[in-house]
Design goal:
758 residues, mainly beta
Amino acid sequence: MASPVFSLSPCAARPLLRSARAPRLSLIGAALMGAGFMSGAWAQASADQPASSPASSTAVSRAAEPGTALPQVTVRGSNAQASLSVGGFGETPLAKLPLQANVITSDQLADRGLTSLAGLTSVDASVSDSYNSTGYVSYLKIRGYDLDNRFNYRRDGLPINAETALNLSNKSSVEVLKGTSGIQAGTSAPGGLVNLVVKRPTADLTTVKLGVSERGTTEAALDWSRRFSDAYGHNNAFGLRVNLQASHLAPELRDAKGNEWLMAVAGDWRLTPDTLVEAEVELNRHSQPSQPGFSLLGTTLPDAHSIDPRTNLNNQPWSQPVVFEGRTASLRVQHQVTADWKLQAHGAVQRLVTDDRLAYPFGCTAADGTYWASSYCPDGTFDQYDFRSDNEHRNSAALDLSAQGQLTLGGMRHEVSTGVLFSRFYSRLQGQAYNYAGTGDITGSLPTTADPTLGGANTNRDEHSTELYLRDAVQFNAQWQGWVGLRHTRLSRGSYQVNVAAGEEARTQYRQSVTTPWLGVSYAIDPQLMAYASWGEGIESDVTPNRTDYVNQGQALPALRSRQWELGLKAGNRTVDWSVNYFEIRKPTSRDVTDDATGNLVRRPDGTQDHRGVEAQADFKWTGGGLQASVMRLHARRHGSSDNSLNGLKPVNVPESSAKLLGRQAVWLPGLELQAGLVFEGRRMVLPDNSLSIPSWTRLDLGARYEQMVGRQTLVWRAGVDNVTDRRAWRESPYQYQHVYLYPLAGRTWRASVEWIL
């Protein structure tokens, strides 16, 4: 749902938290190292997943008994056999589901040096940048559609708010579900879902990690897990996992130093042979000045080679960091009623606090009085504003009650899951500043004057939803399988303005009920090759801004119902796992038009934004190496608008084609693996009328991984250089608030780390 009351913020939503000063990195690093040394005498190493897991891609060093070391086992496997928790069909392997998804493990993230969700754009061709700047929230597109950070993100399957910096240090994997997500979400953008999977207690494990990169970024992390017996002698009845992480941030981008830390604890208790209780708590903080975008110079696209990608236009003496703080906790109880049926109760709460600050360039007033609303002046100057919105609170809570099981009806096996999801979100903000501070320029050399006066309004929101769902996977025979999903959502949403005069709060309130179906069918051509087709719907909710220049101010629009169908093939064997698919998604859009009778604006549904494309993924495996590749070709167009000049246009900031490759090969030295990554993205439209675009670009990354056995312990050394050729290009071109933004491709960046598995 778009915010029914517009705030004065020129930026995308940005959550922050206030807290005590983050611990010094040196102290945390010393503590982590100390914990590692103390644990090393009796620790047994293990990976996040058991070595037998086909999805595991980590080196595992185990000891059967104290003092008895087994040989190191390195397991490299495809994610095709991994289950997809956000898919909604239990333990069914991804290779057998009639949909497309990607599971990126923590090891794969570490090999690529990825520490935020924005890094997914270098892994999967279907995922691209939407508004990604250093020091800020990650914004993603899937299949060309912007994900809504309020509705398209999950944590262990429960909805969370992603208007914050999400730390990946205690996540075992990140799941990317592609396509209309109505089967899993009551309301969401149609591109797909991103799910964060939390690390849970495993066999005895102690891992200490130290890393250094860029212009002095340093990181220290501890991952510690143990299993314990209970008072009755039941082995491994209790599990505990602790993750600690702290970083001093000194990126290649100038004037962007900061820090971050995370503390997380997860535990489980096998209460009875049939009952498992799991709980976890996470605290995190991220403080760093963010990066505003460059823009057009008048009507001209500046040459990317003439722009230093390390220049940060948020470099005023009065610039302050953006601060994100988060507290998250969850409790999950699973009870095996019979051999075939399981009950589950899963609840979570999330508390976010944000201090959002920026020396913000926007538009330009030229010397001759000309105002450039969508760009900077031709001479490179711009109007700079002092933007501040401190102490923003965003709170979420969710409770999912479900049952999963198997039954036989009509001679066919059914795998059924059904339940109800209750969720609530509310934001509490205060007045914000958005005040003219002076004239800046793209060299970052002109000083401006701070004006932190909190004279602007802001918008508080409240949302409640209840979602009833049913999913059924039907096995017709040995070859044919059907998939059915249905979700009914009842939602209530409201908003009102703050920091305005009494009686001028511009309140809105509305309720909607929607139902989203999903259907799929698969056919096993042979044991290693499957064909599938699927169709589904998704819902977005929109409301007219509560402003007097709208005829229908504050009124809810009809639910925007997107539809998708998809055809695909999936196959896998010992040498290659691959899939190829074709999809079409039709998403309704809203537009502001002038009312002929009153001359005021009317927001109303107006045509569709249609995306159709071809995706292909492959994981080639050979002795000592492999190649992971994904490509997407997208045809995205506007159709059905009452303004015929808009029909046939391409959406802005959407690449027409993309390719992501990662190769690895073991070489002469045992334990040494060389890696090479290639990222290609096609051109993107800069202006809505398609009169200007940024060209395609290609980036080459190189890396190495060396696993070294030291007694019963393992050292994993990693090193890499991203953008080896120091390629200069415009990475993306977001268009927001009728203004063009340009973000440069980051220059050559190096990184190195060592991971000590005790």
